[in-house]
């Protein structure tokens, strides 16, 4: 019988080996952290655009369900709110701050989009601008809602 298999043998990693692995992992994480932090504003802006798309869809469906005109008011800094025409606010969302996101209609002031119980929509096309990228929203051919058209450099 070899000495290796005697009753007092122990297996595992030494403290030095564990410390070396921890130092390697710490070094890798310090290299990766700045990359993730630089991606964060872009991800937040994309989330806000997705929330705006969802709000437009929800407003249209709410108008069809309730038989009331539902209005979405959008201002250039990205804030928007949904409410019944002449009624209470249903949803209010503030735009992302310090992310260079702007939403523009034909003018650079607040604009509104109204969804009608008949399924129609009253409002202009608009653009979302974020860090030089322009995302256009146009009324659908049927006039029933908005669709994302293209993403291009501004």
Q: Calculate the mean pLDDT score and round it.
A: 75
What topology, given as strand order, has the largest sheet?
3-2-1-5-6
Structural class: alpha+beta
Gap between N and C termini: 77 Å
At CATH level 2, the architecture is 3-Layer(bab) Sandwich
CATH homology group: minor pseudopilin epsh domain
Q: Mind summarizing the main beta sheet?
A: 5 strands, antiparallel
Q: Which strand-content bin applies to the residues?
A: 25-35%
Shape descriptor: elongated
Kindly provide the radius of gyration, computed on alpha-carbon positions and rounded to a whole number of angstroms: 27 Å
Following the backbone from N to C, one meets helices and strands in this order, namely HEEEEEEEEE
Task: Tell me the helix content.
Answer: 25-40%
Q: Total number of β-strand segments?
A: 9
The CATH topology comes to: minor pseudopilin epsh fold
Uncertain ranges:
none
| Overall number of structural domains | 1
Detailed description of the structure:
There is one protein chain. By secondary structure, this protein is of the alpha+beta class. It has one helix at residues 15-66; strands at 70-74, 80-84, 89-93, 101-104, 111-115, 121-122, 126-130, 133-139, 146-153. The longest helix has 52 residues, at 15-66. It is elongated, with a radius of gyration of 27 Å. The mean pLDDT is 75.
């Amino acid at each position: 019988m070899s000495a290796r298999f005697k009753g007092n043998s122990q297996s595992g990693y030494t403290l030095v080996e564990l410390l070396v692995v921890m130092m390697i992992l710490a070094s890798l994480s310090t290299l990766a952290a700045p990359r993730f932090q630089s991606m964060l504003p872009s991800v937040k802006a994309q989330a806000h655009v997705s929330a705006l798309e969802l709000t437009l869809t929800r407003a249209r469906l709410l108008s069809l369900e309730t038989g009331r005109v539902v209005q979405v008011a959008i201002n250039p800094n990205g804030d928007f709110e949904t409410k019944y025409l002449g009624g209470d606010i249903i949803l209010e969302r503030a735009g992302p701050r310090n992310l260079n996101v702007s939403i523009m209609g034909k003018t650079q002031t607040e604009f509104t989009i109204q969804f009608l119980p008949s399924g129609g929509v009253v409002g202009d096309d608009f653009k979302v601008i974020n860090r030089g990228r322009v995302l256009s929203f146009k009324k659908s051919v049927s006039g029933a809602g908005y669709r994302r058209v293209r993403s291009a450099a501004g």
